[in-house]
Amino acid sequence: MMNSDLLDSVLLQTDFPQLELYASGKVRDVYRLDDDRLLFVATDRISAFDYVLATGIPHKGKVLTQISLFWFDFLRDVVPNHLITADVERYPASLLKHADQLRGRSMLVTRADMVPVECVVRGYISGSAWKEYKATGAVCGIRLPAGLKESDRLPEPIFTPATKATSGHDENIQFAEMTRIVGPELSNQLRDVSLNIYTKAAEYARQKGIIIADTKFEFGRTAKGLTLADEVLTPDSSRFWPADKYQSGRAQSSFDKQYVRDYLEEIRWNKQPPAPSLPAEVARRTSEKYLEAYRQLTGRDLDV
To answer: What pTM was computed for the model?
Structure first.
């Protein structure tokens, strides 16, 4: 069992009173340093069924940050990214007193003018795409071959954009709707770079025993042009499946919130607030899944 000291060490809230809180999501808190720079801090919060739970997952924020840093470096020849540094010693002097809290789970990034569309790429059919396919034979207006089973690999990856939601689930849209929102030229550029990123990353991950079934990217504009931002190819923004357990025709085990969702279904939570706490064992097993995803992708143990 995970001891209580470890559970007590999770970071659920951040507090840097000298900084302006620019945005706060289900996991990340974003602070404004100046007109050009933001501080991203990944907490250990975890959400399920659109609610943040009362219990955090040890090391989760560090895993998400370090996986994103790995992919930013891996993909640097494909697309620019917003990272300035994740080395706390290079942060502004005013932040150094918070070094222990920031180390490993934060990034100093360039502020970007964000594109108001999620760029989703699917290499396998699962989740909302599977439900839509069963009902219509298509996903986001893209007609797919008949007879696909749940979790089947698609003939080729597809780009299925979504609108960003401030709460609840993002809404899948057709490519034509994306062109109406951001214009045809940018839409084509985002589709092409998203597919290129997914293809390169999925091929690498497959060699490491992980299937990236689908993922979502966020982009913005900076002085570098179109820039990859936020988190990248993490277990929170993607479906990571263990390749050695993959079997078409059913839902797959995963490297993310599976134990959390299973527990919440087991206790018959009505998916309304207040969100429940998690037993230490569920938090421990979930933490181990995140750590294993990092280990398999990078070949290293996370320094926790």
So the answer is: 0.94
CATH number of domain containing 221: 3.30.470.20
Domain span holding position 187: 114-245
- Report yes or no on 293 lying in a domain: no
The single-letter DSSP state of residue 278 is -
Three-state SS for 255?
Answer: coil
CA 178, 181, 185, 188: dihedral to nearest 10 degrees?
Answer: -20
Largest separation between any pair of C-alpha atoms in the chain? 59
Give the number of other Cβ atoms within 10 Å of residue 223's Cβ. 9
CA distance 84 to 68: 13
**Residue whose entry in the numeric block shows the structure tokens 């080729």:** 156
Kindly state whether residue 102 falls inside one of the protein's structural domains: no
CA separation for the pair 258, 244 (Å, rounded): 17
First vs last Cα of the chain: how many Å apart? 18
Q: Name the domain count of the chain.
A: 1
Q: Is residue 157 part of a domain?
A: yes
DSSP class per residue in 125-155? --HHHHHHHHHHSEETTEE--TT--TTPEEE
With a cut of 70, say whether residue 168 has pLDDT above it.
Answer: no
Q: Which residues are CB-contacts of 216 (< 8 A; sequence separation ≥ 6)?
A: 118, 119, 120, 121, 162, 170, 237, 238
Q: Where are the beta strands (DSSP E) in the chain?
A: 20-24, 28-32, 37-42, 47-48, 51-52, 83-85, 106-110, 113-114, 117-124, 138-139, 142-143, 153-159, 162-163, 171-172, 210-222, 225-229, 238-242
Which tokens sit at 103? 């180390």
Tens of pLDDT along 259-270?
898 899 999 999
Residue 8: band (very low, low, confident or very high) from pLDDT cuts 50, 70, 90: low
DSSP 44-79: S--EETTEE-SS--TTHHHHHHHHHHHHHHHTTTTS
| Domain annotation covers residue 226 | yes
